[in-house]
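Hi support team,

I submitted a single chain yesterday and got back a structure, but I'm not sure I'm reading the token output correctly. Could someone confirm the output below corresponds to the sequence I sent? I've pasted both exactly as they appear in my results page.

Thanks,
R.
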Amino acid sequence: MTQPIPFGFVPIDPRRTQAKPRRTGMSMVIDDGLPLAYVESVLEIAAPYIDLMKIKTGTARLYPREVLVRKLRTYQAAGVKPFLGGQFHEYVFAVMGEAALPRFYEESRALGFTTIEISDNTVPLTDRQRHDQIAGAVRAGLEVFGEVGSKETMSNPALLVDQARICFDAGATLVLVEAAELVDDGVVRQGTLDIIKKNLPLDRIMIELPGPWIAGVRSCDIEAMKKIVFAEFGPDVNLANIDVKTVFDTEAQRVGLGTGGPIR
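Hi R., thanks for writing in. Yes, this is the structure output for that exact sequence:
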């Protein structure tokens, strides 16, 4: 039975997709080691507003196995897709070599992951390596999110488009645009946003928010970027790296109830 909605007479932006699973308007939140009881409390009230949960970097290696399995099942039961962050894949590739990747994919599936991210934030990939690693994970039965962005693309953002197309050609279902590419000392790179908007399918890309792990980025910069992204792409933009404590505030901005601006 549908629960009554507080202030149900107050309108929200009709452009916002409400029903899950969503193809657009997806929100990705970071899990950097959240306790399971905390996760359950968050999902009780916020599951309708969370589509994806990134198990950050290599934190999956640190859990008791049964706790990680329970956590993944908890997310999936709430209609939230957990996935392994790309820096863990980078670490395995850098430390153990390409030969270790099939075992990494096998273990991912055994734990209950259906999706992983493949990136090159700290371990640069050639175009061929990017393609082959994504294709290899897909052949192993995993859905793959590609991530694009590097020091090269900061000086030539058009390369983001080329990298994204390689990801799609290799079988990636979604491409995340690295947050560091989109800000310069906390200020949004408008030209890069324009290139993304004009050249990539918006239902297959996800814009990453920056965080304090990027030099010069403050909380106010993150909030400013949200406003710009919603203004540029609309409330149904796919948005990544949302802090778990700001899920409600971000959704309020999407539907016009927050500081992102009035509904149209």
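A quick pointer for reading it: The longest strand covers residues 143-148. Let us know if anything else looks off.

Best,
Support desk
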